[in-house]
Amino acid sequence: MGLDIRTIYMMNAVVYLMLHGIIWVSLARYKNRVVTLWSVWGMVSAAGVVLLGSEGLVPDWVVAVFGQVLMAAGNFGRQYAVRSIAGNPSVRWLWRQGLSNLAYLALNGTLFFSGADRAQMMVVFFAFYAINCIDYFFAGRAIARRRGSPGARSVQWSGLVFSGTLSVKCLSVGLGWGAQDLYDPSWDQVVLFTGQFLAISLVNFGFMQIQIDQFQQERVKTELALAVQRDRAVLAERNSLDLTQLLREREEIVRRLTLSNKSAGMGALVSGIAHEINQPLTTMVLKTELIETYLRDGQPETVEVRGLC
């Protein structure tokens, strides 16, 4: 039966690898940093689970040190990725999560190298992750408030399932009601692994749904932006045509005004010339009439015509 429990650990690791790998491959075309973080750190967690299932096959210190470091790092990285969906994680969150992970790893190492009881180490292990994994619930709630994606509900539920089943395991070990060894068959092992399979499935499906919704929203925004740009281009082209027509009309008005000015100038010039010609002609006509009058009245032929001129 010990081999069966060990096999379940390995199956759990395969589920980690498979789900995170599917997400990475499926969303690779978007080249999203959060997706990469989630997938890579999920695979790191899978490596930690493999080491947990390898007790007796590798030195115990490798399981106690490297296995715990890989699991803590993988879990922290995935929490960071989920938090990043709702915005950059706060400095306060980074310090809190980082210090709590370091404190747990230090305590776990101290217990192991001091020869502490296996059950005591298991209680510390499950208690830490029962408290730590509730962060998925709060991250999912933050995403739901900001984006409203249905996947945020799955992330919230995964946090509750993670924490709930790990709490049951912690209590069962601490109170002596369940398995006192990592590979002992017991009812609490069934609760633990069932909860782990369910929670890891929920959080991965929720994460994928959130990302897909986000990419769809970005695509819609891009399409709307393109439609607006297209409308602006059409309007600009129409305005350009209107402006061209206005410029043509202006040129025609200027041309007509120029011709009108030229005509007016020519008229003034002709008028001036006519006036200058008309004056001597008028004088000549008047004097001619005077001569005719003298002649008609019988004046002597010796009339000094030159004097009249």
In a few lines, what is going on in this structure?
The protein has 309 residues and is mainly α. Helix content is 84%, strand content 0%.
Secondary-structure topology with pairs:
Blueprint: H1 2-26, H2 33-52, H3 60-85, H4 91-113, H5 118-132, H6 135-146, H7 151-174, H8 187-296, H9 305-308
Please describe what this structure looks like.
By secondary structure, the chain is mainly α. The chain has one domain (2-228): Rhopdopsin 7-helix transmembrane proteins (Up-down Bundle). Helix content is 84%, strand content 0%. It contains nine helices and no strands. It has helices at 2-26, 33-52, 60-85, 91-113, 118-132, 135-146, 151-174, 187-296, 305-308. Helix 4 runs antiparallel to helix 5 (118-132) and helix 5 packs antiparallel against helix 7. The longest helix is centred in the last third of the chain and has 110 residues, at 187-296. The chain is rod-shaped, with a radius of gyration of 49 Å. It starts with a helix and ends with a helix. Mean pLDDT is 82; it is low at 301-309.
